[in-house]
Design brief:
homodimer, alpha+beta, seven-stranded antiparallel beta sheet, three-stranded antiparallel beta sheet, 13 helices, 12 strands, 49% helix, 19% strand, elongated, DNA-binding
Chain lengths: 346, 346
Amino acid sequence: MSELTERQKVILSLVVHEYVRTANPVGSKNLVKHYHLDYSSATVRNELAALTEAQYLSQPYTSAGRVPTEKGYRFFVSGLIQMRELPEETRHMIEHQFSQAQQGMDGWIKLAASILADQANAISVVSAPLPNRTRVKYVSLISITSKQILMILVLEGGQMQQRFMFVNETMTQGQLNEIAETLNRMFEGRNSEEIRVTAKHLPSMGNVADEIVRTLLNTLYDTDALQTGEVYTDGINKVLAEPEFSDSEEARRTLRFLDEKPLLQNFLSKTTREQKVGGVQVFFGGDGLLKDIANCSLVVARYGMQGVATGTIGVLGPMRMAYSKNIPTVRFLAGILSDLVSDSSQ
Amino acid sequence: MSELTERQKVILSLVVHEYVRTANPVGSKNLVKHYHLDYSSATVRNELAALTEAQYLSQPYTSAGRVPTEKGYRFFVSGLIQMRELPEETRHMIEHQFSQAQQGMDGWIKLAASILADQANAISVVSAPLPNRTRVKYVSLISITSKQILMILVLEGGQMQQRFMFVNETMTQGQLNEIAETLNRMFEGRNSEEIRVTAKHLPSMGNVADEIVRTLLNTLYDTDALQTGEVYTDGINKVLAEPEFSDSEEARRTLRFLDEKPLLQNFLSKTTREQKVGGVQVFFGGDGLLKDIANCSLVVARYGMQGVATGTIGVLGPMRMAYSKNIPTVRFLAGILSDLVSDSSQ
DNA sequence: GTTAGCACTCAAGGCTTTAGAGTGCTAACG
DNA sequence: CGTTAGCACTCTAAAGCCTTGAGTGCTAAC
């Protein structure tokens, strides 16, 4: 675990930069020429050998150029990286798009996914903000037919759930309004556990009302169970252009991972540990656990209001990705989404 | 345009079947051996030559096997095809999954997309059912903070829209309830045009109420503009396994098309013309218009209640797809979705 | 510590060869 | 006349071979 010299750090940075740019193993001569280094290729060769020895770089085959290893990327991102902030005009452009977008969390999330995929030229992954514990904000009951009821549940954090119910007694909209009013008085701001307890110690308000409370609770349980909400994805076609996905088998594995929503949700829910970079975290190679994305990195941040409702936004691409651009982009978009969440939920 | 003989039809069917199975150009000897034909390969060769002459088949290169042309597939699907209905148990399994699924159109659509992608081993495309003309079923106003209002709009056909509003005056939930009640009395069952006219001839009910009506109208307009609703997609990774997508450029073009929601919506909205097969339609090669999917077919059906709310469900895959299985599958799922729509909206 | 020089390695791309599947045509057969 | 066996011909895909060139490690001199 010996320290690297300054020069070695510089060279490691250059190798990462060059490899990200060209996707080809980078050699000593090339490096000297391209970056006008003031020492010779032989010197660089010695340093490369040292970096390879220390496992920051590897060679695809004997006597080829060098490629950063996972360890190399980790070191680069955690220390050497120089962020390339988004240009002012790009920021304005993005903010403008949000200001014009159809209102509502759903639309914002899709917009964020689309913008991120575009900026990073990779797959973007955005999960909806979810109340950390699901609390009821408002219940609304709507009579669809005489024996059919639509329950709309507005939860803190702006999320909504709907359920259809079939009941045995005929109910008018007026009667439903009354029930809804009662429920709102009792349940507003409560979570599933509190509601369950309250409801147990309550005299029955009639068959239908009981049925409604039962359905409401079930809906809350469902919501609680889904720890990370809906996950939106964009930019799949972008990443197929990358050489690491020209092998369609490789591409399939990555896309399979994206379709496995539970896996993805579980993975995103871990967004807290791992190294942090100004709120943005980077997972390399599926954290060693998910071999479907062993060659990919995920740059991800949590957005929203801590303790109220949070979601995640990130970009998934080959490990050879432009971290110095993607990290600021994710950070910026997470900030925008956070503002939108707190505007609409406090 | 001379008629084909019976034998030619049989042979065309076999070529399609074999090519769908193997993805390799199929030759005369192979055909005779595999299907135990009681005439010789030379005879088959003559027939193949005739079919090629008539443009039902083509040769990738001189003296290779035959491959069905678009015309060949069209003819096969419109006349020769023998449907392979879903086995009883598969149907039950699917119905069971729907009965257990989280209620609500959203969930059903995703489930249908997932099942279809799985059954067809291709990309499934499902659009949400949309009222042919958007009519209001119910308006609900919810006070989020004292100057912020959430409007929930339930439309006929089960669709929902939500909007946040910022207003200048402080409004209590009680006041909002009153306004909502008035709006429901006036607007229930009306579409945007009718509401616009009604609202114009109305005395003002106060600043906030006017603002709410304006927002409601805008929301309706937005909804009207989106002719085909949200489109869900599943099974992208499945199709990458097909040899026609091993060229990643080809795959990218197809996926690009899927990301172009407007294109896709526009295309799905054409589901009415073209050849019909028991309610299911088949588009070959993007109908000549969309060259991004020139090598793909789309098997698609409209579901829902005619004149009330309809959506589309379909499967997109290489033109070399298992039509005899996919068509019944799409038909079956469209039926299930139709039942669900009519259950929840009549 | 740095650098020039040199022999060596090895993938990538181009070229050639080979094998085999498939064709079209002709002539014979019932 | 439709069907079939036989045969010469075509053309791809796969395998093998060669060449090229970027890149290396090592050594010896600066």
